[in-house]
Amino acid sequence: MTDQPIPTRPPSGPEKILQDKFAETIAAQSDQMDALARQLITLELAIPGLFAAVLKLISGDKATIAPGPALYLTFGCWFLALLLTLISLIPKNWKVDPTVLKQGPAGNTDTLGIEDFFRQSAKYKRNRLIAASLLFFGGAVAAAFTIF
Fold it and tell me: Which of 48, 62, 69, 118 has the fewest Cβ atoms nearer than 10 Å?
């Protein structure tokens, strides 16, 4: 191995723009999850009301459903989905060291670097939103069985 320094150069204009855009996407991941959560809340509040309205239109004045496992499962899944979506929007306290950009692979501390914070925050929200979406879909499937 030689003792020659490795030649370097500052990033060119397009390279600097790409680096900035990359950093922006990492920082914006949590905001994207928040936007998704707001859309899910809209659906999670609208669909149960729409479900009740359709039942009323189909059945007329006799729009009643006998309480059963499918009905409890439907509204239970929808409630849990809404709860998980709301939890994803509640800010969580993270321990962040602003002097560290990214923890190394051996970083066994509870404190996150700045980049780690953005990734962990988005991952935390994403996991709850995926679970909420699955529960909401499960509630929609269970709703189909309440009509029979």
Answer: 62
CA quadruple 87, 90, 94, 98: dihedral positive or negative?
A: positive
Per-residue pLDDT reduced to its tens digit, 75-96: 999 999 999 999 999 998 988 8
Q: Look at residues 122, 90, 91, 116 and name the one whose alpha carbon lies nearest to residue 101.
A: 116
Encode pLDDT of 15-61 as tens digits.
Answer: 888 888 888 888 888 899 999 999 999 999 999 889 878 777 776 66
Per the domain annotation, does 8 fall within a domain? no
Query: Distances in Å between the alpha carbon of 49 and those of 42, 70, 75, 108?
Result: 11, 17, 11, 47
Please tell me the distance from the alpha carbon of residue 105 to that of residue 34, in angstroms, as a whole number: 28
- β partners of residue 129: none
- Domain containing 95: what range? 27-144
Q: Which residue has the tokens 């998704």?
A: 36
Q: Which 8-state DSSP code applies to residue 103?
A: -
Contact (Cβ atoms closer than 8 angstroms) between residue 29 and residue 118: yes
Number of domains in the chain: 1
